TrEMBL record:
<comment type="similarity">
    <text>Belongs to the Dps family.</text>
</comment>
<dbReference type="InterPro" id="IPR012347">
    <property type="entry name" value="Ferritin-like"/>
</dbReference>
<dbReference type="InterPro" id="IPR008331">
    <property type="entry name" value="Ferritin_DPS_dom"/>
</dbReference>
<feature type="domain" description="Ferritin/DPS">
    <location>
        <begin position="17"/>
        <end position="155"/>
    </location>
</feature>
<dbReference type="InterPro" id="IPR002177">
    <property type="entry name" value="DPS_DNA-bd"/>
</dbReference>
<dbReference type="InterPro" id="IPR023188">
    <property type="entry name" value="DPS_DNA-bd_CS"/>
</dbReference>
<dbReference type="Pfam" id="PF00210">
    <property type="entry name" value="Ferritin"/>
</dbReference>
<dbReference type="InterPro" id="IPR009078">
    <property type="entry name" value="Ferritin-like_SF"/>
</dbReference>
<protein>
    <submittedName>
        <fullName>DNA starvation/stationary phase protection protein</fullName>
    </submittedName>
</protein>
Length: 155
């Protein structure tokens, strides 16, 4: 059944493509944050263990929202490691970094994800896609806050 919500198919595909990149970055960041939660050690263990849990829990909910928005636009949501690896701007962690390297990596990845989100705004604005703009605004705010929290741990 065809969608008739006021957006052209071309616009829906373009916005969904941008959201797919955001989804890949978000899922990759979720996985990395969860990995670091499991493996963090050092003098800041408790605070970082808790911070990472808060952040990966928020990301777990976010990836579902992003994927559902892509589906609402009538497009398939990427959902495999292969698809995410092709779409993400982030690098996976190698080995088990120090607590400080973990914080620095997650800080950089949240900032990269924020930039990915910002890159989708013009496409969504041109398509008059207020629902995607609202989602993108919420995600941008979450990543900027996460980056601030991580930056605070570095002093």
């Amino acid at each position: 059944m065809a969608l008739n919500t006021g957006m052209s198919e071309e616009d829906r595909k373009a916005v969904a493509a941008g959201l797919s990149r955001v989804l890949a970055d978000s899922y990759t960041l979720y996985l990395k944050t969860h990995n670091f939660h499991w493996n963090v050690t050092g003098p800041n263990f408790q605070s970082l263990h808790n911070l990472f849990e808060t952040q990966y829990t928020e990301l777990a909910a976010a990836v579902d929202e992003i994927a559902e928005r892509i589906r609402t636009l009538g497009q398939p949501a990427p959902g495999s490691y292969k698809a995410f690896a092709e779409l993400t701007s982030l690098q996976e962690a190698e080995g088990v970094p120090s607590w400080k390297e973990m914080v620095e990596a997650l800080l950089a990845d949240n900032e990269t994800t924020a930039r990915s989100i910002r890159s989708v705004f013009p496409t969504a604005e041109a398509a008059n896609d207020e629902a995607s703009l609202d989602l993108l605004t919420q995600r941008l705010s979450a990543h900027e806050k996460a980056a601030w929290m991580l930056r605070a741990h570095l002093g």
